[in-house]
Amino acid sequence: MKYVELVECIQAVLDGVATPDQARQLEQQLAADAAARAEFAQWQHLFAALGRQPQASAPEGLVAAVTAAADAHLQIARNRDQLLERPAVIAYRRPESRGQASGFRAIFRRSNRSDSTREIDIMSERQRIGFGNRKLWAGGAVMLLAVGVAMIAFDLPPRSSDVVGTVAPAERYRAPQSGAEAVQLGQPATGAQTSIAGADKADAAAKADAGLKAEKVDAGMKAEKTDASMRAEKVDSAMKAEKTDASMKAEKVDAGIKAEKTDASMKAEKVDAAMKAEKVDAAMKAGKADAAIKADKIANKLDAAAKADKIDAAAKANKTTSD
Amino acid sequence: MLLQRFRGGDREAFATLVVRYQRPIYNATLAILRRPEDASDVTQTVFLRIVERGDDYDPQYKLFSWLYRIAVNESLDVLRRGRREAPLDDDLDIADADARGPEALLSAVEMSTRIHRSVMSMSLNDRVVLTLRHFSDCSYEQMAEILDLDEKTVKSRLFEARRRLRALLGNLGPG
């Protein structure tokens, strides 16, 4: 048996979970092997020591602290539930089949409460629902009755036969208007002249002032309009002048460009003419050179001919002398 | 049963439940956190979870398995939030100390201290499985429930943890 298998069997036996095979194998091994027996003794000692190993005591007051904390937690949870509790009934449903109890069945939210508490709630809810319906019907009947009594007592609404006569548009009230005679313009405001008695005259004067002010305002507005139109015209004329300047500048630029083009073309023509003249000169020079060469050739030929003649003449002279 | 009574409004049942489970829960959290004040806080939190989530309890599991699972998860949450594991102090309660003789007591204290230090020096997984199995007497099945593992994995982890502990402790006595 290998060491690992031996230890496995020892641990299983000491743990109390060994199979019959493991127990038998270990027994055989221990009977035959002293080292296995020593190993078993060591493990047995360890298991016993672990079994005797003391446990640390829980801190003092832990029970009291835990129960107090639990109470506080439950209290907080209870308060929170009360604060945040929504209505337990989320819907009412009328029983569909006959034979069931009258009234509505309440559908409840899921809650942590015990079933017995919930059942009590359901019962009280049914009672509240029934009572609420009766109140609703009674209130509706009283309201209908009150409306009927009011209609009879006050004859509401009035019928068309109750109305007699024709309906004419109402005439608007107009106060007496002050005339032009109430206003005297161009007169100094002396005490005698301003002794216009009565509120009508004062009104007339006020209206006249108002009219004058309005006319002034109109005149001012017209003047402003005129100024504005004049300004606009000035702006237009300035713009036109600018446009004219711009067009003139453009024309000048065009003319300049054309002049430059003309100059350039003239220069080009001059260059061409100069080139042609140079070519002609060159040709003339070439012609002259050719002519000179020809002349030289001719002169050489003539010189050679003269020399040949001289040689011939000398030869003839020699022959003649020798003869 | 205690939980049902408490949910029915019996405050005494809750107090009884706390008295019964406070020590193993505290030791389980202490084995993970190694800091007594953290273990105390987590133990309180575990019992408050019962108040808050009593409805979540599945009666097919044992109550202490559920409590241990909450304790392990809360302790791991504390570690995940950045609290480092602290070394434990050496104040241990020795059972029936008065009944033993002075030499036996000294030997027992020495052995307990060695084991305690060795266990607490191990990795978190090793500490948890050793604590659940040897200090809280949980079966493999319960450990699997608490740690949300299958039994084979629990067995394998426990086997390796014991071998490592044995290596740390060296020679334990005669033999």
* Mean pLDDT over the full residue set of chain B: 83
Low-confidence stretches of chain B: none
How would you name the oligomeric state of the polypeptide chains in this document?
heterodimer
Structural class of chain B: mainly alpha
Instruction: Give the helices and strands of chain A as they follow along the chain.
Output: HHHHEEHH
Question: Can you put this structure into words, describing what you see?
Answer:
The complex is a heterodimer of chains A (about 325) and B (about 180). Chain A is mainly α and about 325 residues long. Chain A has three domains: about 45 residues, no CATH class; about 70 residues, no CATH class; about 120 residues. Chain A contains six helices and two strands. Chain A has a two-stranded antiparallel ribbon. In chain A, helix 1 crosses helix 3. Chain A is flat, with a radius of gyration of 71 Å. Chain A starts with a helix and ends with a helix. In chain A, about 5% of the residues are buried. About 15% of the residues of chain A have low confidence. With about 180 residues, chain B is an all-alpha fold. Chain B folds into two domains: about 80 residues, RNA polymerase sigma factor, region 2, helix turn helix motif (Rna Polymerase Sigma Factor, Chain: A, Orthogonal Bundle), CATH 1.10.1740; about 70 residues, Arc Repressor Mutant, subunit A (Orthogonal Bundle), CATH 1.10.10.10. Helix content of chain B is about 70%, strand content about 0%. Chain B is built from eight helices and no strands. In chain B, helix 4 crosses helix 7. Chain B is globular, with a radius of gyration of 18 Å. In chain B, about 35% of the residues are buried.
